[in-house]
Amino acid sequence: MVELTMTAPGKNALSAALMSDVLARVRAANGEPLLVTGAGDAFSAGLNLKEVAELDLDGMRHFLELLEAMVEALYEYPGPTVAAVNGHAIAGGCVVALCCDLRVATRAPQTRIGLNEVALGVQFPPKVLAMVRRRVPPRSLERVVLEAGLHDPESSIMLGLTDELADDCVAVARTRLERLAAHPRAGYVATKLALRGGALALTSAQERAFHDELVPSWVAPDAKERMRAVFVRK
Questions:
Q1: DSSP β-bridge partners for residue 47
Q2: What pLDDT score was predicted for residue 229?
Q3: 178 Cβ contact list (under 8 Å, min separation 6)
Q4: Which of 40, 122, 134, 206 is most buried, with most CB under 10 Å away?
Q5: In the chain, alpha helices (H)
Q6: CB 173 within 8 A of CB 142
């Protein structure tokens, strides 16, 4: 079993450095059972908006491409993955959890889990949105994405953002991962990739829209102002 603990300032906010580290460690895990959690009392509070708000167009393109690569590597990881959601999993943090095969979250009632990108006025990158469409149940997909709410653990179960709650979510997540890892590995991997392989592939039109429309929208002055307002409030 490989344990990947996200560690960064701002409640493990996803900076370019952290995403690069996660991507490298996922690739280095080489299909071994993978447990994903966060350091301290948070899973991940989302993208590092302080960093994002200062990026120019080229920097934003690199940042969002890195996010997409990390999501693809986790979602299509050739082995079992379990997220131990030990605290807040907001926006990009919730995205990381959704990539995993199972998600065990803390019962702590103050924890918030959800996708609040729309509330920030930014569009989901295409591979991220494709993964979200696959992982959030159809009955709650539009509510989760368009309402852009942050939910307590009990609500996260109801909405399909998590699978199970536990007082010690890390210990339970390890047990669940061991159970998945007990299946014959070749069959598990082949079936997982049959279910997910190619799901995040983009058409040429989607790639053009990403570079020509979506990335510029993230560096628009109003978008940057909303991002700055969030970390100023913190």
A1: 14
A2: 83
A3: 1, 33
A4: 122
A5: 9-12, 16-29, 49-52, 57-75, 92-99, 117-120, 126-135, 138-142, 153-159, 169-181, 185-196, 204-209, 215-218, 221-233
A6: no
